[in-house]
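stuck on this:

***
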Amino acid sequence: MKTMTAFRAAIDAAPVVPVLTVEDAAHAEPLAEALVKGGMTSAEITLRSPAALDVIRIMKAAQDRLLVGAGTIISEGDVDAALKAGADFLVTPGTSPLLLDALGRHDGVILPGISTASEAMARFDEGYGVLKFFPAEAAGGAKFLKSLAGPLPHMDFMPTGGITPDNAADYLSLPNVIAVGGSWIATKDEMARGDWSAITEKAKAATKLRRGS
């Protein structure tokens, strides 16, 4: 996995992280190319399809400038498989005791999912400096994260879940949000049609979203 320094550099350059479910490994290479052409520096591939691990491998080989992470990590098996596939970072929707044990055996960039202040405090105490806030909109949205910035100013978040081009700036304006995860950058229909130019254009638009804006 990449270091946190490399991860932070990538999201500083482009604070929208595409969160993608890719059904066909044949889409991996043109997808990676489309994202990089659009200025994307990272992507999270969810382990929600049988092709996901192959997609991670292919995207990494195709575009070495793109950090490719694995999302929807929910078990020790997912951790091991994602690391063997070469994932640059791991993202979980939440954390069970068994999953925490598995994550704790690895160094690198790991963003455990939280949805409450208590979970955020517990994960920070365990050494996780960047946390995934999920499902962001359903769990309180930007208002919730803004309320945490006062009592928990030392914690950084990447909200995911319900983030759109219309509300992404609300999150990125917050001092405790370092990036947002967005599934709108590349839809399943666009990938199925091979509409890579549409994905590139949406990526270009997303790169105009900046922190503090």
Remarks:
- DSSP finds ten helices and nine strands in the chain.
- The mean pLDDT is 97.
